[in-house]
Design a protein that fits this description.
The protein is of the alpha/beta class. The chain is about 35% helix and about 15% strand. β4, α5 and β5 form a beta-alpha-beta unit. α10 runs parallel beside α12. The longest helix is centred in the C-terminal third of the chain and has 31 residues. Its cofactor is [4Fe-4S] cluster.
Length: about 625
Amino acid sequence: MEDIEDLLIGSGGGGAPPGFRLPLNTVAVKPKKNVKNGAKLNGSLLSDLSLISTVPGTQTIYIKTFGCSHNQSDSEYMAGQLSSFGYGLSDDPDNADLWLINTCTVKNPSQSAMDTLITKGKSAQKPLVVAGCVPQGSWNLKELDGVSIVGVQQIDRVVEVVEETLKGHEVRLLTRKTLPALDLPKVRKNKFVEILPINVGCLGACTYCKTKHARGHLGSYTIDSLVGRVKTVITEGVKEIWLSSEDTGAYGRDIGVNLPTLLNGIVAELPPDASTMLRIGMTNPPFILEHLKEIAEVLRHPCVYSFLHVPVQSGSDAVLSAMNREYTVSEFRTVVDTLTELVPEMHIATDIICGFPGETDEDFAQTVSLIEDYKLPQVHISQFYPRPGTPAARMKKVQSNIVKKRSRELTAVFEAFTPYNGMEGRIERVWITEIATDRVHLVGHTKSYVQVLIVAPQTMLGSSAMVKITSVGRWSVFGEVIETLTQADKRTSAKERLSSEVKCSPCVDQDESCACSGDKAAAPCSCGPEGCGEQQNSAGTDTASHNQQLLDAQDKTSLIGNFLSRRRKTDPTRKLGDSRTASGDSLKQENSREEAPGEWGFVDRVFLGGLILSLFTLLALLVHLGFRVKLSK
């Protein structure tokens, strides 16, 4: 196993300035001496050519994610960085050059699935990189022998780890430093959903929890950075923002702020037409008790789902004490009662652990009673799994047959509930964001985050609509669209929302119309890659713009194409003045040379210089190899 700092920086030290990649010696070839015969030379030639094929950024990566939404966000950030450096992303593990496995340590089954996948990868001789909570909390597991590791707070260095792993090195980055930046490149699993981590770690010390070992103590992002991220993703067309955290309620206590302040700052940036919705993440009872009224006010906001996940884990105070949960059943009831009273149609989800060490029949009966009292629409029931290194793993366990029996009994109680009875015939606004697993229905959610299945064209993804509920099921309801309210291609930035000017929103398809605020009639327009341009009056201009988008889409599939597309983004149909955001910009740069849209900037020149140097290097290498072939004859 080698340290990545030694691999990349070497004995000279110093590293590279921020924002620049350190040089990689991937294509270096050392000529062999005393070649006696053509067979050896041919073998050398094949070896040299194989090195050329391993240029970083040309391989395909398979990413598998286990666990929570925070893990999903980490995977999306890692995918974004790898993609931006040219790596391909594939859902097919067999055809991938490297596997990146993002792991979860909450329960035994998820870690067992990780073990199985690692074993399969090793058998297939795939280079492996393991990320997430398992290696961060248990880096010395024998299953992790021979694989590279990237820690939960080192995801911004995944490209380096992948590059070195593909070279055959074993790399491990686990040291916790600063929080990863929120503006890293990101490839979302669902382009309409942004999972936004607001902090890492927590303030708790639950006796059964292994995640604390991995995520550590509470570390919160600043309000400014989070609000800035929200502004960015709204302009990118995101329609749902999920706040993710190991404990949302604890946000900001390490930096002197609190959750309500953050929520109000985010809500202020959401579009007033409720085209983008906010979902507040999981929060434990202790840290929201003092802010219940403020949080209820946010949950009533038209742009916020009236939904909250509040894990109780047990209906027995004795079990909660053994878990070190730092609240009582009465305090949990206060949270639920207050929110359901202050927020219309409020829906709350919770978690239950069956068979925690020391749980008696009476303790379990109290849990059943709590669930029956509230008949919550979502209850996540799990059996207790002892996690290595946790205090609960050393406690006397309840017999496994009893644990299973209690789990089945509580599940039967919960599944007997009919939480959506009475919704049939109602008309609800529904935000539609994904395709159902049956590939027939689209999936949306009401303001209370009730799942609604509708039969509608996929063009409705990313939109909201008025839907009549036609029937109800145990886990979701079914509906039919009555009226579409917001379209997926209608993006409004914060600056545009504050402006009284009539502006045209970007359109995805040039054959469609763009909806313009202040005008009921939709007018055709041509949209550039950065926003909506001026309306075009000639069919020829529309065709040119459409062809330009096709060229850009093709170019961006490669690193070189991505660079060339930067040169073509300024076409003859755009005015020179469009490159300036305001007249004040030209005044500020009065004494400096301002780049015209078609000029070469510093980064462009550096990129082009590197590209030319690489081509000359490859040419020289091929000439050298040809010279060696000639000498052998």
